[in-house]
Design a protein that fits this description.
The protein is an alpha+beta fold. The protein has one domain (4-86). The protein is built from three helices and six strands, in the order αββββββαα. It has a four-stranded antiparallel beta sheet, with no helix packed on it. The protein has a two-stranded antiparallel ribbon with strand order 2-3. The two termini are 45 Å apart.
Length: 116
């Protein structure tokens, strides 16, 4: 019943902005993405590409880092977006069978509430 395509379509609507740390990494959705030291200090925009299930990182504001030049964009596989990551593992619940009692009007709404 869980539809990852719907999740992908939802994520594709957004753009996130992050600043890459001194180690060339950033965090998005509790996941860490390594872009490389050439990206250190750069402000990047991030968009989700649903067909490939990747994030596309694009430099917004460039800051030169020790003679390294960041490419205009880079992609990384999306992390943490599987059905198990999003919903958790499905555990079977062991509950002994029980007889449930329902009011009579639930099944016969025209019956009197008082017993005959």
């Amino acid at each position: 019943m869980f539809d990852l395509r719907a999740v992908d379509a939802y994520l594709a609507q957004f753009t996130w902005v992050r600043t890459v740390n001194a180690h060339g990494q950033l965090s998005l959705g509790r996941q860490r993405y390594g872009l490389g030291r050439a990206w250190a200090g750069q402000t990047v925009s991030i968009q989700f590409e649903p067909a490939q299930r990747t994030f596309v990182f694009t430099v917004l504001l460039s800051r030169p880092t020790a003679g390294l030049e960041a490419p205009p964009l880079i992609t990384r596989p999306a992390q943490g977006l599987s059905a198990t990551d999003l919903c958790g593992t499905i555990q079977p619940v062991s509950v002994p069978p029980q007889q449930l009692s329902f009011p009579r009007w639930l099944f016969d709404p025209f019956a009197d509430s008082a017993p005959a």
